[in-house]
Amino acid sequence: MSGNRILWGQITLVLAVVLATTWTATQWTAWRLGFQPQLGQPWFELAPGMPVYYPPAFFWWWYAYDAYAPPIFVEGAFIAASGGFIAIAVAIALSILRAREAKNVETYGSARWASNEEIHSAGLLGPDGAFLDAPVAGSRPQAEAGQLIYFVGGEATIFARAEPILKAMGGAVHHAGAVGSGAGVKLMVGSASSTWKAGQRSSAANLGLCCLHQCAQGPLDLRGSRAGL
Fold first, then answer.
1. Residue numbers of the domain that contains 10
2. Are residues 93 and 170 in the same domain?
3. Cα torsion through 182, 187, 189, 191, rounded to 10
4. What is the CATH number for 150?
5. 109 occurs within a structural domain
6. pLDDT of 147-180, one tens digit each?
7. Do the domain assignments include residue 211?
8. Selection from 173, 133, 139, 171 nearest residue 153 by Cα
9. Alpha-carbon distance 15 to 9, whole Å?
10. Which of 104, 128, 163 finishes a domain?
């Protein structure tokens, strides 16, 4: 649940509490006064002999008939005023919940920090530790859409454990080879992008195809790739 959803829920719930207590005060006062005709036309009848009045009708009656039955209107006033205290308590409770939710805000779409449970389940806290280099292709729009492309370098077993976490943040995850290979592929992709922008489309296409071909074949030999290019 996001922070914004909690905020709108908080506003709605607080207003609902105020409405409910005001309406309760109205119905209580009407019942204590015996649903007299002088109270006006009800909104509708819930059952025979059980009219339902508009929520703010209590305040109109209080102004017009307080002198005739002060104790009854005091009771109604206590009921209506209780809504303010209940609403304040609800607002504080939901603000605390919203503050806790802010600790897990997902800044860019699906991209987020892994939880302790996810890290443990991925087996990344073994005695030998784990290391991967995982540069990405894409910027803020891709991050917000959860469509980042990862180029990962590291041992295949470690990559297999980390892959579910990376897939939660990106649209594609490629194992480029040993540690450092991910950075190498990222450099080639960046070079291809820069070359494309410079207008050399043919060279950029060849460079991109070479990069993808190497990724498809498995571990990347950066020196061999440089020589081939």
1. 3-104
2. no
3. -170
4. 3.40.50
5. no
6. 888 888 888 888 888 888 888 777 888 888 888 8
7. yes
8. 133
9. 10
10. 104
CA distance 35 to 44: 13
Q: What is the C-alpha separation between 189 and 172, in angstroms, rounded?
A: 15
For residue 167, being part of any structural domain is answered with yes
- Is 21 in the same domain as 87? yes
**CA 80 centroid distance within chain:** 35
Q: In what order do the strands lie in the sheet with 170-177?
A: 136-137, 148-153, 170-177
pLDDT tens-place string over residues 111-142: 566 777 777 776 666 666 677 888 888 878 88
For 150, the 3-state DSSP assignment is: strand
Q: Which of 104, 124, 159 is the last residue of a domain?
A: 104
- Output the six-digit token pair for 43: 């909104």
Domain membership flag for residue 110: no
Per the structure, the count of domains in the chain is: 2
| pLDDT tens digit sequence for 75-107 | 999 999 998 899 999 888 888 877 766 555 555
214 CB-near residues (< 8 Å, 6+ apart): 176, 185, 220, 221, 225
CB-CB neighbours of 29 under 10 Å: 24
- Ramachandran area for residue 41 (φ above 0: left; ψ -120 to 50: alpha; else beta): beta
Same domain, 91 and 131: no
How many whole angstroms separate alpha carbon 207 and alpha carbon 73?
A: 83
Report the DSSP beta bridge partners of residue 133: 153
